[in-house]
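hey
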């Protein structure tokens, strides 16, 4: 009896998904990328926004549930010059990094868009992203930061500070509001936060290491990029003593994408034909498309 009930349950769920699914969509995202971490005083800000793009595909199972895969590109930056805390201004650090992300997220529409034409939605999933922080020296030369071990990563004198990986997992989640333009096209505005598991998007997390050790192991560029207060006008330019606070390891870095998403229902697939064949059937209230 249990096996029979389980079999009927699976058949029922499969039939429901098959009958109500809307099939494959092509998805395009355009918006901004932003950063949250040790180089910003506020926990959440739209400061230093940069353009971001995403391309992908989705599959709609029923009137509420869909899954989307998206390849996204963006850029995040921050600069101590934009802070107000005197200690952060004196630190004078900044960073840039491009973000390339592949994510798969599950989306839940609160309302049935066929009837309401507009619906809020929430989403969450899993992502994989690549970053590589860099800066520019006082003469404009681009400097990649990870090889410099600015906080002693990978140096024998600091065995607990391991080099960070440039490829990381994240958890994308967020919310938005979706509008039906017609039976094939929807537009949505959404904001998606990315919880990361690294504190080195900005190459900044912990305390200053010994200047002489860093100079010996990585050279003068490393010490120059580890502390840049000496570039400021009227600054004493004294490299901080070993163990002085440089960043805050208690919180991981975040980044987020916000903007517009356009989805186009592709005219192929069994689920699309099922959906087409059901148009015009008796329903109350009548769907908008």
């Amino acid at each position: 009896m249990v096996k029979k009930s389980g079999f009927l349950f699976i058949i029922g769920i499969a039939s429901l998904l098959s009958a109500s699914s809307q099939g494959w969509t092509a998805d395009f995202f355009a918006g901004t990328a932003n950063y949250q971490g040790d180089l910003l005083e506020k926990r959440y800000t739209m400061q230093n926004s940069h353009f971001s793009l995403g391309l992908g595909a989705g599959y709609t199972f029923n009137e509420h549930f869909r899954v989307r895969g998206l390849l996204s590109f963006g850029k995040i930056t921050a600069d101590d010059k934009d802070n107000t805390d005197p200690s952060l201004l004196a630190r004078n650090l900044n960073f840039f990094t491009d973000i390339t992300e592949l994510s798969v997220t599950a989306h839940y529409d609160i309302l049935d868009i066929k009837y309401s034409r507009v619906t809020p939605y929430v989403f969450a999933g899993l992502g994989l992203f690549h970053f590589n922080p860099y800066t520019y020296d006082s003469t404009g030369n681009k400097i990649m930061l990870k090889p410099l071990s600015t906080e002693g990563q990978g140096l024998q004198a600091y065995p607990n500070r391991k080099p960070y990986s440039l490829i990381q997992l994240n958890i994308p989640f967020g919310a938005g509001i979706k509008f039906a333009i017609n039976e094939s096209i929807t537009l949505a505005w959404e904001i998606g936060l990315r919880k990361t598991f690294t504190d080195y998007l900005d190459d900044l997390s912990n305390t200053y290491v010994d200047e002489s050790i860093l100079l010996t192991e990585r050279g003068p560029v490393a010490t120059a990029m580890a502390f840049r207060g000496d570039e400021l006008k009227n600054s004493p330019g004294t490299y901080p003593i070993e163990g002085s606070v440089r960043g805050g390891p208690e919180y991981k870095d975040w980044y987020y994408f916000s903007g517009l998403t356009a989805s186009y229902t592709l005219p192929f697939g069994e689920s699309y034909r099922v959906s087409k064949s059901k148009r015009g059937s008796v329903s109350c209230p009548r769907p908008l498309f």
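The beta strands are 23-36, 50-60, 65-79, 94-109, 118-130, 134-136, 142-144, 167-180, 185-196, 254-265. The radius of gyration is 25 Å.
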